[in-house]
Design a protein that fits this description.
The protein is mainly beta. Helix content is 9%, strand content 22%.
């Protein structure tokens, strides 16, 4: 019985303590509430575009809608108060649809106790970052990323000496050397510095770190930085994350002096020399990306297998020669992304057999010859979704059994035989520039998720399956040019499809242009050139609202090219190619009034792009 009384007494005391703490917690003061409500008045609400990162990372909604006078401001969305003093100490308005600007006299700066301020993913209407941001002496986190700020970063930011995290990325900001020097000298407690996509072209690289010895994460991605990478970056004792990609750094990569690094991204620079041997000692490394530089030397791939935690390895597009000699126990246990394009590989190494977790594999632009071994399709049986084997010397492919594969690129090889039936879940299938023969198998119409299908530049023949026009509502690019197809064009293009590019050039197709093409309201390119199509001019294609390229040359079109009615035809047309037909009469001038490319010389330099290559 005594234990029961003791237990009851403890519970009673705990309840009293909780009640006391709730009663003693102070409410938001009138001054703070008033300051926040005034700050609210600066903005209209403008919902972010669907392409915004909001909703993918955090919910996107207008937090200001909950800011009302009759409610304690400590309970407003995005506002956090100190439970003892009632001071507003955190303000998180990321992804809140704010549209407007923050002047230097804004009431936001009447909140001197702020420790965390997050205004990321809003639209501050190309305004400058106010110098008044230095009025937060206790600020530990400042995030102004992706919020449409413009202009020079004010030097007053360097007065926030207690900052631990600073993120100014993805705006239109310019950072000069004196301001960066101030940041590196004053913000000595900084652990996270994210400045990617900030213009730092004039910055002296030696000031990138200076006194920032507590840095854990540094992101100078896409900053126009040049010169050599400061040696001080390689000796920061606590650094775990380093991203200097998409700059213009030259020179060699120094030896790394600490083992704390988990992610290194130096890709897309002008770095030269060999890969430092110290990289193979970074036992905590998860992500190593060195692609698109001028690195050279001969490397044994199994050396990277020493890094047992490695998940991403990217060495593509250097001057490296990669040996894939197999050694016992040299497996990549955790690798899910392997990018080895242009690494002078000559075979499918047995090392690849053990890629049980692989999701992304790029072996393009190498010297791999012969048949694709059947075990390739068993790599990452349940995980592989991207495979690029293009620009090799592969000759035989029998089947593609991968069930989760979404992207498969086999173009520009020496593949022979029939067109293999791709997996039904494939979204991108590129097998152009080979010597495949035979018909398109009817089973291809089971690919209901396909978005890009490129079978061009082969020796395929027969009739194009009628289902091609309606087998996938997701299809955006269909390229069958330069084959030997005959018969008529498929006439079953369904409504509400997503076709943007349709290319049947250089085949032996006959008949007329199918009227169902008018259902393809997203079409930008129609290329029917070099066939045997016998039809009058398809003037009704002028109703397609975004059509930019219409190629009908070298066919058997006949009659006049007539504009019917007063409605504007071909409003977005840029390329209009009709030669080598049997048209008669004059060309309607109203067609040419909308040829923006011809009228604007600058526009002619903008070529249509398709999968990274020049298309027209």
């Amino acid at each position: 019985m005594a234990w029961y009384l003791t237990w009851s007494c403890q519970i009673f005391c705990l309840l009293l303590l909780l009640l006391h703490s709730q009663c003693s917690a102070k409410l938001c003061s009138h001054d703070q509430s008033s300051a926040l409500l005034q700050f609210k008045q600066l903005f209209s609400l403008k919902k972010l575009s669907p392409s915004s990162a909001c909703d993918k990372m955090v919910p996107s909604y207008s937090k200001l809608m909950s800011w009302k006078e009759d409610k304690d401001c400590c309970l407003w969305d995005g506002v956090t108060c100190d439970t003892v003093t009632g001071h507003v100490i955190e303000l998180d308005l990321s992804c809140s649809w704010l549209y407007g600007s923050i002047p230097s006299n804004s009431s936001l700066f009447f909140l001197p106790h702020l420790r965390r301020l997050n205004l990321a993913f809003n639209n501050f209407n190309s305004s400058q970052i106010s110098s008044a941001f230095n009025k937060f002496p206790s600020l530990r986190l400042l995030n102004l990323s992706s919020s449409n700020f413009h202009g020079q970063l004010p030097s007053e930011i360097s007065h926030l000496t207690k900052l631990i995290s600073l993120d100014l990325s993805h705006n239109h900001l310019r950072l000069e050397t004196p301001v960066l020097y101030g940041l590196s000298q004053n913000l000595t407690e900084l652990k996270e510095l994210i400045l990617d996509d900030v213009d730092m072209f004039t910055v002296v690289p030696s000031f990138l770190v200076s006194s920032l010895q507590n840095l854990v994460s540094i992101d100078y991605h896409d900053n126009l930085l040049n010169g050599t990478i400061p040696s001080g970056l390689f000796i920061l004792p606590l650094l775990e994350f380093m991203d200097l990609s998409y700059n213009q750094f030259a020179g060699c990569i120094h030896e790394f002096q600490n083992n704390s690094l988990r992610e290194i991204n130096l890709s897309n620079n002008r770095l030269s020399g060999s890969i430092p041997s110290s990289i193979f000692e970074l036992v905590n490394l998860i992500d190593l990306e060195l692609s698109s530089n001028n690195l050279s030397g001969i490397l044994e791939l199994y050396m990277f297998a020493k890094l047992k935690n490695l998940e991403t390895l990217a060495l593509s597009h250097n001057n490296l020669s990669l040996s894939t000699m197999f050694k016992a126990n040299s497996s990549f246990l955790r690798i899910h992304s392997l990018k080895l394009s242009s690494c002078n590989l000559s075979e499918f190494s047995d090392i690849f057999r053990r890629l049980d977790r692989i999701e992304f594999l790029d072996l393009s632009n190498n010297k791999i010859q012969g048949q694709i071994p059947s075990w390739v399709w068993n790599m990452g049986t349940d995980t592989l979704n991207f495979l690029n084997l293009s620009h090799n010397f592969l000759t035989v492919i029998e089947k593609i059994p991968c069930k989760n594969l979404e992207y498969l690129d086999l173009h520009s090889n020496l593949l022979e035989g029939s067109l293999p039936v791709p997996p039904s879940d494939l979204k991108v299938f590129l097998i152009s520039n080979n010597t495949l023969i035979g018909k398109i198998p009817q089973l291809i119409c089971n690919m209901s998720l396909i978005q890009i299908l490129d079978l061009s530049n082969n020796k395929l023949s027969g009739r194009i399956p009628e289902c091609i026009g309606n087998f996938s509502n997701n299809l955006s690019v269909l390229d069958l040019r330069q084959n030997r197809f005959y018969g008529t064009l498929p006439g079953t293009f369904m409504k509400d499809n997503n076709l943007r590019t349709l290319n049947f050039n250089n085949n032996q197709l006959e008949g007329t242009v199918p009227r169902s093409l008018i259902n393809c309201t997203m079409l930008e390119v129609i290329d029917l050139g070099n066939n045997k199509i016998h039809d009058a001019f398809p003037y009704w294609l002028g109703d397609l609202p975004v059509l930019q390229v219409l190629v009908l040359h070298s066919n058997m079109f006949y009659g006049s090219i007539t504009h019917f009615g007063e409605k504007v035809s071909f409003p977005q047309l840029r390329i209009f190619y009709l030669s080598s037909n049997s048209f008669t009469g004059s060309l309607p001038t109203r067609y040419f009034e909308n040829l923006n490319t011809i009228m604007n010389a600058g526009e002619t330099e903008k070529k249509l792009k398709y999968m990274g290559d020049t298309y027209y």
